[in-house]
Amino acid sequence: MEYVQPYSFQQLLDHLRPRTTPGVERVEGNIYSRVTVEAGMPTVLRVEDADDGCHLQITVTSQRQGSLENDLERLRYLFAVDEDPSFAVTHLSRDSFIGHLVAERPWVRVPRCWDPFETSIRIIIGQQISVAAATTISGRVANKLGQQVSTGSDLNRIFPSPEVLANADLSGMGLTDRRKTTIQNFARAVVDGTIDFRSSEDLDDIQTRWCALPGIGPWTAQVAAMRVLGHDDAMPSSDLGILRSTHRLTNQKMNTKQLEHQSKVWKPFRSWAAQHLWQAPETPRSTQ
After folding, report:
1. Of 160, 154, 161, which is closest to residue 33 (Cα–Cα)?
2. Before 214, cis peptide (omega within 30)?
């Protein structure tokens, strides 16, 4: 699977590693693996760097017959291999605030998603809790409510569908009552077509539609715009990780409103700027 250069598979793995849903996907070493199913037949996909500077290597373990085109398209989207970072790099590297991050790491790009609904639920679960806690809860949801498949490995669950989660018993998973209701309402909105995962150029329209659902606020809508809908100009300005990163970079605390104002100069590539801030090196850059 060829990718647009510059590209860092490791950067994407570093983002995905703590967020993979147990039983459904994993990052082990430098390999991403996932189970999927079609016509009742499970397939395990393994993705690793081909180490030729041009391709990712895909290994498929499956008994099913037929095309893998849909699986490969999903992997291409998840790992953003077709996206050209040069436009974002050209624009953002001029910025005095994050320009050095972009110039030093021009391969950074925004990880997207394998399945829109699955990733949306993972984002909702992650509201106001740690990445590790959200991953644990996502694994419980998959284990209790997901379809079990036989693969000969611990990748043996398919994440539950909107139809399943719309009326599922979500007790005993570590979710608050409000979060349970949000997940069920969101699943029902997907089932009835209120949320359809069609991308939109209008970010305000995305946020309005998503935030009309109880329990979903701007942070969820903005992260979903980035990851699920592939929007290049989303900015989850209330995200604690991004705010901590800006503090580390500038030694000045910035609140949500200030970050939102600062981010205007990064348009139309605020999603890329956010990813740079999320994955900025822990060690502050020397100003000497």
Report:
1. 154
2. no
pTM of the predicted protein model: 0.94
Pairing, β 147-148 against β 157-158: antiparallel
Of the candidates 126, 139, 114, 121, the residue with the CA atom closest to the CA atom of residue 33: 114
Contact by Cβ (8 Å): 1, 69 = no
At 85, list the tokens: 């970072």
- Tens-digit pLDDT profile for residues 68-82: 899 999 999 999 999
Single out the residue of 264, 185, 274 nearest to residue 227, CA to CA.
274
48, 57 contact by CB (below 8 A): yes
Q: Tell me the three state secondary structure of residue 152.
A: coil
33 within 8 A of 46, measured Cβ to Cβ: yes
pLDDT tens per residue across span 260-282: 999 999 999 999 999 999 999 87
The residues of the chain scoring below 50 in pLDDT are 284-288
Partners of residue 33 on adjacent β-strands: 26, 46
Can you count the helices (H) and strands (E) in the chain? 13, 6
- CA dihedral 194→199→205→207, nearest 10 degrees, is 80
Give yes or no for a contact between 80 and 111, defined as CB atoms under 8 angstroms apart.
yes
Residue type, 185: N
